[in-house]
Amino acid sequence: MASLTTPAPRPTVEDGGHALFSWLRTMRDEHPVHEDEYGVFHVFRHADVLAVSSDPAVFSSELHRLRPGSEALTEEILSVVDPPLHRKLRRLVSQAFTPRTVAGLEPRVTEVAGRLLDAVEGDTFDLVSDFAYPLPVIVIAELLGVPAEDRTLFRTWSDRMLSMQIEDPADLQFGDEAGEEYETLVKEPLQAMHAYLLGHVEDRRRRPGDDLISRLVAAEVEGERLTDRQIAEFGGLLLMAGHVSTSMLLGNTVLCLEENPGLWDALRADRSRIPAVVEEVMRLRPPITVMARVTTRDTEVAGVPVPAGRMVVPSIVSANHDERVFDDPEAFRPDRGPKNQQTAFGHGIHYCLGAPLARLEGRIALEALLDRFTGVRITPGAHLRHHRDGLFGVRNLPLTVRRG
Fold first, then answer.
1. CA–CA separation, 243 vs 132, rounded Å?
2. What are residue 241's phi and psi, to 5 degrees?
3. Residue 326 CA to its chain's centroid (Å)
4. Phi, psi of 64 (to 5 degrees)
5. Cα angle at 232 between 294 and 170, to 5 degrees?
6. Are the CB atoms for 48 and 314 separated by under 8 Å?
7. pLDDT reading at 297 higher than 70
């Protein structure tokens, strides 16, 4: 049962997350399922997070259930629909966005990463603006078949959406009653991005090419195809979620290595350890820290009653630090191997389709840094700006590097 005591306020991640990790440990021990002042239920233990994300019949991804009448704006988005529509969309998308497609990107990702770092002049640069942001944007844009030169436009959209502060999760609105901040910072850039992508989808129907949008247009399973809107929605999801999460992953990787400086030399000596490092970064500092579900009926989580129609927020970062699953969870230990049951890419039917691409980009980016610099450190005295709550990463990361 949930504790009747009131937990302390959630800390920010300005100290690298250490205060947050301590707070999450207290929540797991004393408030494993906590109803906040807005009636939202937060879930903190690894087993309970997996249980919620494994049961779409009870814990729905269709957030429009919170605002009846708003489903028209979200019903085509893969990440916020339930079966059977989710099953149909995922099968069609998976026919075009295959592991082979991702594996085939390795030479181009390597080329882009090298070109971006070769453009660095002097011994200082900002990892995020000069490398971690443009790398995934260029790769995903080229994969989709849209001009990588438009990445300034993509960043304008993402910066606006990521700047919205949501104090009450129940204020998430998708319809005409949305507040002015939501209209300006979320709805308008989303509509602009989807209009942009719809134009490319319509163009590929007339003139198919060798790109993901063309393959999505041609995808067919049992006589069913994706609509233009469904293709545009998936393209937007891949573009936004893909570049934001990968950008934060690369920044978090350098932050973790900064705290464990001997690992740079260890990786230079044995590159085969890089995938395990990336996996441990995803566990310790997952870019996306929570997921959101809505209960379809009265239920309970870990013995705590949860009424129908309530938002449930499983904490990915807390699950990844659960001492019931991970030994010494606040330590950065790339040697966890199969015991690293991290949940950064989700779980169940909504497991991230882009996980193989994120892992590929993370590995190649780290290899490129090792290839070009004999020393990498965060510039002393640098002021780091962090993303808002719900995201775990930095907006800037000034580095000082050594060559030769």
1. 9
2. -65, -35
3. 22
4. -65, -15
5. 25
6. yes
7. yes
CA separation for the pair 363, 346 (Å, rounded):
20
Query: In this structure, what token pair is assigned to residue 345?
Result: 């890419």
Beta-bridge partner residues of 375: 402
pTM of the predicted model over 0.85? yes
Whole-angstrom Cα distance, residue 401 to residue 395? Answer: 19
- 92-130 burial, b if ≥16 CB within 10 A, otherwise e? bbeebbeeeebeebeeebbebbeebbeebeeeebbbbeb
Task: Please check whether residue 387 is in contact with residue 248, taking contact to mean a CB–CB distance below 8 angstroms.
Answer: yes
Other CB atoms within a 10 A radius of the CB of residue 180 amount to 7
* Residue 293 CA from chain centroid, whole number: 16
Helix spans in 219-272 (H):
228-259, 262-269
User: Of 93, 286, 64, 262, nearest to 175 (Cα)?
Assistant: 64
155: enclosing H helix or E strand: helix 151-162
**Structure tokens, 148:** 């990588």
Extract the tokens encoding 16. Answer: 């690298």
- The DSSP 8-state label assigned to residue 302 in this structure reads T
One-letter amino acid identity for 288?
I
364 is written with which tokens? 């190649």
CA angle (241 as vertex; 235, 242 as ends), nearest 5: 80
pLDDT in tens, 172-217: 444 444 455 555 656 787 888 889 999 999 999 999 999 999 999 9
pLDDT score, position 113: 97
Query: Which of 380, 393, 366, 375 is closest to 113 using CA atoms?
Result: 366
Q: With residue 368 as reference, give the H or E element that holds it.
A: helix 355-372
- 293-295 and 59-60 strand pairing: antiparallel
Q: Phi and psi dihedrals of 10, rounded to 5?
A: -70, 130
- Three-state DSSP at 204 gives helix
Longest dimension (CA), the chain: 63
Name the CA radius of gyration of the chain, rounded: 21
